[in-house]
């Protein structure tokens, strides 16, 4: 009996450690992106995203092929790879747009907009699967959107271009989620998140490389010149890129050892924690109206999750 209790306690501590790692990596990469792109003045969001995807490519292969964290799944056909490439392109758009938005918006407002993901997911799912939700599900999305509208009106650091980029990133993230369920729905094509990242990340690098060359000319030379003045930029980029991979790894492990529903609940709480931490670190001004708007959005997301859970 004592051994069972000890084993259960050990398992709970392990799960708690995974959750803390997931929170730390998620919030850490978000805050470091904000610091690099806004406070530090490293104005190359596409190159930064390419660094993230390069690290994800190398570390994914190491984790699967060498460490055997999960069995390696193979791409069975060109059609399946074409589907993965399409998801990768949308994923690139989402991450790049999100990083661009961090140049202009505080993390707190960025997270408020990001919380509207369920709204876009429901819209895209309805359009693409022609399968609507219940009226109660749609009703819960009203406070989600209303909260962001209120938060936008009360945001002292509101920036229209940053807002558009952040909304685009949120919509692209939702679109990828819906398309992933449609494109890789057959048993022969399903990939776990770690294997999907293994194939998506290098494909993303191929998409981002020409975009970086054309839109952020001589970024490597400029980064090296910056490194000669302040070598910390190299360590920032390396640590930030490794952290971006660890976000995906910890996400997978938390889902594996808990459940997708638990992950959703933890994700809602993570957004609120990220808001508080970012305000404490960056000390960006925030209004009572903005906080009320964000709170309303979070309440809407929680209600949406509850209605979806009961509908299953």
Automatic annotation (TrEMBL):
GO cellular component: membrane
Coiled coil: none
Domain of life: Eukaryota
Keyword Transmembrane helix assigned: yes
UniProt key word Transit peptide: no
Transmembrane segments: 12-32, 44-69, 81-102, 108-128, 135-152, 158-175, 196-213, 233-254, 261-282, 288-307
Domain spans labelled Sugar phosphate transporter: 17-305
Protein name: Sugar phosphate transporter domain-containing protein
Lineage: Eukaryota, Viridiplantae, Streptophyta, Embryophyta, Tracheophyta
